[in-house]
Amino acid sequence: MSCLQDKLKQAYLDGELAAAVAELSPEELAFDAQHYLVDCIGTNSAEKDCDTLIILAHGAGANMHHEFMTQMAKGLSVGATVVRFNFPYMRANAIDGKRRPPDRAPKLIADYALQFSILKQQFKPKKVYLVGKSMGGRMSTILAESIKVNGVVALGYPFIPLSGGEPRLEPIEKCLAPLMVIQGERDKFGHKGLVNTWPEMEKVQLHWLTDGDHSFKPRKSSGTTLEANLEQAVSHIKDFIKQSS
Q1: Residue 17, pLDDT score
Q2: pTM attached to this predicted model
Q3: pLDDT in tens, 154-167
C-alpha cells in the first residue's frame, strides 16, 4: 500500500476520511488513464465537466473487465460517464497473474476514496453515483457514510456471508445517500422472502430480478434471460438517477 493509501486507511479507521480526502492535493489526485475504463455515449465530453459520473466498482472475484461489468457500463453510459477501476488486489493480479483474496474493508475503502477523489477532479461532474457489484456495492454503501454522493446502487448486495452469520445490514443503516439495491430473486447471499422482511430495508429502494441468481442469471425454465435482467437493472438505475437528480 502506498503512503497515501495508508494515510487514508488510518483516516477511515479514525472516522476522519472526509477530512483527509478534502486535504488531498491536485498532484496526489493525478489521473492515469491506464488504470481506468471509461464509457461515455451522448454526453458533451468523456474527459471534463460531465453532468453525471457513475463510478462502477467490481465484485470480489472478477475485475473491471468482466463481462457483467462491461455490459452494465455499456448500458449506463448513454447520457452519463461511467468509469471502472480495479481495487488493489486486482491491480496486483493484473501485474503478476496471481489470484488473491480481496483486501480487508479498510484498505478497500481507502483506495475507493482515493479513486473517487481522482475521478471527481478529472471529470468535474455535477452529480456522482456509486454503483457496485456484490462486494463493490457493499464498499460503495460504506463509502457513502463518509463521502457525499448523489446516490448508491448495490447490484447483488452480499447480505449473508458464505460462512453464515448475521446479515451485513450496518452499512445500509449508516448510508447517508439515497440507496437502491437490485437483487436476483434466488441470490444465495440474500433472496426474496428474506431480505424484504428486514426493517432496515425500509429506507432502501429494493428491486427484484426475475429468478436471478447472484449474477442475475435466471434458469431456462423461468421464461426470461440474463440479458433481460441486465436491461431491467440498467433501467432501474437510470430511473433512480432521474428521481434523485
Answers
A1: 97
A2: 0.95
A3: 999 999 998 888 99
Q: Which three cell numbers stand for residue 206?
A: 429494493
pLDDT at 112 over 50: yes
d(CA 205, CA 201): 8
User: DSSP letter string over the chain?
Assistant: --HHHHHHHHHHHTT-HHHHHHT--TTTT---GGGEEEEEBSSS-SSSS-SEEEEEE--SS--TTSHHHHHHHHHHTBTSEEEEE--HHHHHHHHH----PPPPHHHHHHHHHHHHHHHHHHH--SEEEEEEETHHHHHHHHHTTTS--SEEEEES---S-TT--S---HHHHH--S-EEEEEETT-TTS-TTTGGG-GGGGGSEEEEETT--TTSPPPGGGS--HHHHHHHHHHHHHHHHHHH-
**CA dist 147 to 8, 21, 30, 53, 195, Å?**
13, 9, 19, 15, 26
